Records
---
Amino acid sequence: MAFGIDSIWLNCYGDLPEHLLLCLEMAKENAQESPIREDLSPLPPFLGSNLLMQSRGVRHYDFLAESDDLTVQLKGPKGLPLPAVVVRLSSACLWRLGGGGWPAIDAAVAWAHEVFPAGVEVRVSHFHQCGDVQGWVPSLGDLGGIVKRADDLDIFDDDGEKFEEEGLRYRLAKGDALQGVAAGRSNRLRASVYDKSKEIRRSGKEWFRDVWAQHASYNPDLPTWRVEYMYGREFLHKHRIESVEDLRAHQDALWRYGLAWFSWRERQASDLAHPQRWPVVAAWAALAAARPESAALPVARLVRPKLVKLSQGAYGYLSTIMAMTNETDEEAALGRLLAIVRLDKGASRMRDVLVKKKQRYASVARADSTGLERLREIAEARRAGGEGVGAVHDRWRKWGDGFIGSRNRDAGVRR
């Protein structure tokens, strides 16, 4: 029925003019002295409305200015890798201008160029994309049809309160209504499915009914459910979506990715082992059909593991094995671990895996080697200074010579 961008944050990178910063400081002081806080900011108007200066900044930013359509955070502390300005468009502005939110986004980019006369780079920080449907009302009994890649699942009752896991059966027996579900992480990808009709009554956003009324299929007597995906900066960067133009080019690919990442399907008792093969509910098919076919989402960047993180993981596994086997010697525990791996995988298969991983991470091999040499230098210096780290370094070196060096030797447990 309705589809569009419901929220968006834009990061603006550039140098703010010195005279603008001075005027912002004066406006902020005036706002602190004004009881009604109606001091205008020195920023350009947005869509014909002036931005009001707030008496305080927010988070790492010194200045905050707002209008009904726009919220702006300005000037973060020097030395931190933060954008000079963060812009958030309101949901009302995005939907009021129509066009799936793009007229409002284009206006925000044009406004940013006014603020940065010397030039600005605008990147998408994160955004929410949603579709609204009628004629489908999921219940608690339908939760078994959710197929997702996220590990977590939050379930909300008719009052908007999260279900306690131990109380779910009790509420099922009572027939409590389902308000919505959510899964995933906000800095990556998070999905939410909820009764938008009830949400707008609680939030006071009754103007949204006018948006729905623009569609001939809208029935004000029926509930409207929303399927919403929140794409965080980490996810967008991973998939090479940096600029507003990147987002414009791939918004439909993002939508289809989200619909596959978290979907609601018709549970098939005859094929419980393959839930991804279950047919999607009619609402999901309608949401997919609402957008045109598009090219696939850009391939995700390869996440290259860091040596420190790998070492921490190895330490965790090793300590667990030592605790479970009552082993007190690290080298003996490593030998036990190697024996288990070789019995389970086989030496030849391990060599095949190593070949593939070497090819995968060939581009970072030199950087890792440089970092490793630096770690050795630090450890040697600390040992010479009597800091007690030398013994750890010696064990690590013996382990490296034996355990890692054994990759190129025939199979067999090192004793």
Note: Confidence is low (pLDDT under 50) at residues 364-368, 402-415.
---
Amino acid sequence: MTTPHSSTTPTQTVDSNTYHSSVENIDGNRVAYGDIYQPRRHAPHKNLDFTTSGKSVNNLFTYLVVADGHGPSRTALVTDYFRNLNWASFLEDPDFMEKIYSDVEALGNTRGMGSTLTIAIITKNQAEIYWVGDSQCRVYKNLEEVWASNDHGKNNASEMERISIANQSGEISWRPKTVPAISPDWATKVLSPTEITMELSPYFRFGPHDSINMTNSIGHNGLTGKYWDEHVIEFDDNTNWKIVIATDGFWGMTAYLDLPRIASPAEGPRELLDLSNSRWTQTWKFYNVNEPKDNQTPQELPFPYGQEDDTGIAVWYRGV
């Protein structure tokens, strides 16, 4: 991982991006971690994503945190709460996910606003992954992807079952408060580093002011239920490992052919942000989803001005 720091973990500003990184030698291994976030270049007021990384106060683990906020930016209660947390001490509480939900509830009215949240707690022997929403975590072993978190959305069968029954009794807190209506919509889909099309991407309407393009979110007055997923990755000795957590502003601009670059130890958060930025601003070959690709001459189009998404990325790497 390319980083400008070797011993401390400062936060600095690079081209209006919040950038943090660290490299250490631990038990003969090179360990690097860092995070970076960039708001929309043409809409800087849409400052709703959040990333951070670091070491716990007790120095027992490294952590990565990524959140993708949505809703009116002037009242971004949930992501502002994340920004104000002391994560180095907060994550030492084994019940930190329960506390996040109770703290967000105590913020008051979060109608129409919420956030994804993905956390990795990394020790010498394992990584614990916790997630709500669709800021995906992917794990690479010796340059091969070995695991990815299952986004809380339309392609997650267990999630679609979870939201199919409402928590009417108040006793099943992991169920949604209301069964959402599903409204069809479309989103872009990257086919290759130069080709793009559209795919069905429905909105889930949990209330009159709470339509989101996923099945689970922190905020929204708890309408989606108090639920998160967990997974543990056990590390092998003498193996290179890399963990990448990112918002859909990054994953939505990548495809399978990008895997070697994403898995590479040379690609830290800054380099991956550059990849995302280049995709948001390039000219694409656009294929109509309603026709066979081989029968089309693609249109060559850039994204409309101002429509690029915020991008937040956090990375950890251990090399033997």
Note: Confidence is low (pLDDT under 50) at residues 1-16.
---
Amino acid sequence: MSNIYETTIIVKPDLANDQMKNFNTSIDQFFSENNTNIGYKEDWGIKNLKSSIDKYNKGSFKFIRFQSTSDFPKKLDVFLKFNADCLRFLITKSNNSLEEITPQASKDN
């Protein structure tokens, strides 16, 4: 049985364009290797953090909504924990449809 999940990832804001492309590629590759469907993806840009994380006061925010089996979020958790470019992340079960646009998409940084 598959469910819809969302993850918000905070990435180091000082990554070069090539490093950010590599990060995005590694995420996409991880999803495809695990036969997981990404339904919706957004890049929310660089935002200020309320409190610093590893001496970073800003972070680059990524949002992904995906459909997967219940064991995949645990695999994603392990994958993101050991990714050096990822500062923080949150994976939650979603009540939204797979392709629904987030309110954040229309906000300015």
Note: The chain has a mean pLDDT of 90.
---
Amino acid sequence: MKNFINNVLTGMSMGIVVCLIPNALVGEILKLIIPYVPQLQIVLDTSIVAMSLLPAVIGVMTGICFKLTPIQTCSVGLASFIGSGVYTMQEGTLTLAGIGVVINIGLTAALAVLFVQFLGNHLKDFTLIAMPALTMFVPGLVGVAILPYVKSASGWVGEVIMYATSLQPVLMGSIIAMIFAVLIISPISTIGVATVIMLSGIGAGTANLGVCASGVGMCIASYRANNFGTAIAHVVSAKIQMRNFFMKPTIAFPMIITAAILGALGGYFEIIGTPYSAGFGLGGFVGPLKYLDLVGWNMTSITLSITLFIALPIILNLILLKLFERKFKWIKSSDYAVNYE
């Protein structure tokens, strides 16, 4: 069971990195440049299309992790897409929007893996014809059936966050930042939660700081256990550490404490954001750029942005990581190792 969960979480992490990193890297920057260089619009559009392909890619990556055959792997990808909630059909027109419900994508992919393993070689000569269809129609449609309930569960998470926004700003900011610091390394989509509950203002700003705390912290922590490129990728998506986090939650303690401090400061200095920026953090500089766009570019806002989104996350995570590793001995560098070979 442990190995099964490991493979599913690894597949989800890989899919998220592959599909979301391109837009996170260039999306917000391109939005600033496109009014002056409209030819770059196609680059932005391409990155958005890649995000909507997340369900299929998660399914394929999960199949690869389980070392399934090519037909089985593609069948899992199709089922994951069907159960994702990323598409709607109206009068014969297929519309893609967003990235789907990440938890449901993972559940559907897991069911699809079990299904294709159950079928095995029983279909014999009809494998190529029947397996993709059966996988879409059975685990894929099961995913469609459970989608509303999974959405409701995600909505419950949103209600908790909305309650936090009703508290006074400093405490509110700290709580929201810690919640989002955990969500970004869980199967739950921070972007999805933020947009579902339309998190805005200080709530969105401090959520961004929480995501930033996890991304920067995981980057620093994983540097010794992984290569430089993999470490940098954590800034864009800390979900790379999803499997390691579930196996050993203590690896996130330094980041969660960093998030609490940043969130409190964000509440005090009134760092704000929008529902669509709240889940990105430092990836593509979405968090700081959106804050500056909302409050205006001046010396005070630029200083606050650099300090809270870049300088303090680095300093606090460095201090806390050393404390937890050398003083408490709760973590070690190998805890952050990822292997996508």
Note: The mean pLDDT is 87.
